[in-house]
Amino acid sequence: MLTKEHAIARYDFQRQRILPDRLTSGEHAQYVPFAERMLEVYRTGLGRRRRDLHRDVHRIFEDEVDCPLRRIDGFCKLLDDQAKYADAGRREAPRLRRLVFRIAARHHPLVDQADNLFDHCADNVKALIAKELQRDWFDIRAELFADVIDFHQLESFAGYPQPRALLSRYNVAQIQAALFSAVSMDIDVTTDFKRILRAARLAKLMHTISYAGEGAYHIRLDGPASVLRETRRYGILMAKFLPALICCTGWKMHAVVETRSRWKLSLDLTDRDGLQSHLKPDAEFDSSIEADFAEKWGDEVRDGWTLEREAEVLHSGQKTFVPDFMLRHNDGRTVLLEIIGFWTPEYIEARLKTLEVFRETPILLAIHESTSHHFTAGTGAANIITYKTVLLLKPVLDALASSGTAQR
To answer: Are 396 and 366 in contact (CB under 8 A)?
Structure first.
């Protein structure tokens, strides 16, 4: 991602909205060849220093009037994100500098060519330093500032599949930079509800879901501290969530961004805005506990039960709940399985209220032992089991066998 230093946005105070910098195919067609040239600088730049690569990228835009300095720096940051720089000598560089400067200080002042006044030639002193350290001077010089970021040498470059991919990444990254200062985010969803909800969970954002009717849902994203006060603490998490949201369809997002002057501006996006995400297909599971349990179960039928991932969306009035798994028996019975790890007290309280709404639905709770004391017989769950590090199959199958509330 970009940093706040790379953010470019226009403030429309009349309409109370923020418009992050965006490159379009119509107004910025010339940026496609620019992007190809930038990629070529890095593709052919193995072994070169970071500052030299950045300098060459800046030179590409020397004659381009419509390109602010922050935009070029943003390109450099995104290119660096796909690059790996050698770390050889970084830890030893401060010690090496002290040794070199200490030896050089004995012969101060140094001049390019010795004369009657100054008899210490820089080249001769370099040779003395190399002899005393028993190393070649060119090796010493290469490692002398290895810990300074501008002098890091390019080791490899993953790059972008095509020039337009770099420009698309820039557009999304500028929106992410604007979201750093977001105080709230609301999403209206008509399709891909489960994928969006899963992405919010993976981004570690707490969520409040309400049913809007006819298969539509409203998702409010925030975090524990937002219960007590309005905070921009979760802006970075919202920014990280954005690329996953862009991968989905059937949504519109409304975020409130607070400027340094405390102005509240709107940032609105939809799936029809033409943004493209750099992410691969989203992960199937929200946690390693769920992934491990699903892998252990596999595709087998166990005691007549099969396992399905997020196959049910429960809603009652404005409350919506998507359990982690559905267990379906050969005779048609179903039991929902929700895995709860270690969460904040606010989240657990909200989850208890949700379970109370769906108390008539057979739900099997698998609860981490550290939070199990919050859940009692009044939660509305058909059964409760606890786990320490992994959720085993046997306790789940035993609970299913003893469950008398599973519905057809």
So the answer is: yes
Tell me which CATH code domain 288-402 carries.
3.40.1350
CATH 3.30.70 in the chain: give the residue spans. 180-283
pLDDT digits (tens, 9 = 90+) for 303-323: 999 998 766 778 775 567 788
DSSP state letters, 69-111 = HHHHHHHHHHHHHTEEE--TTTTTHHHHHHHHHHHHHTTPSPB
User: What letter does residue 121 receive in the DSSP assignment?
Assistant: B
**Residue range(s) of every CATH 3.40.1350 domain in the chain:** 288-402
Domain covering 180-283 in this structure, CATH number: 3.30.70
| Spatial distance between the Cα atoms of 154 and 159, rounded to a whole number of angstroms | 12
Q: Which residues contact 16 (CB under 8 A, 6 or more apart)?
A: 263, 264, 265, 266
Residues composing the chain:
408
SS3 (DSSP) at 190: coil
Per-residue pLDDT at 19? 97
pLDDT digits over 191-211, tens only? Answer: 888 889 888 877 878 778 888
Q: CA dist 252 to 147, 202, 210, Å?
A: 45, 20, 15
Give CA–CA dist 387/337, Å, rounded: 14
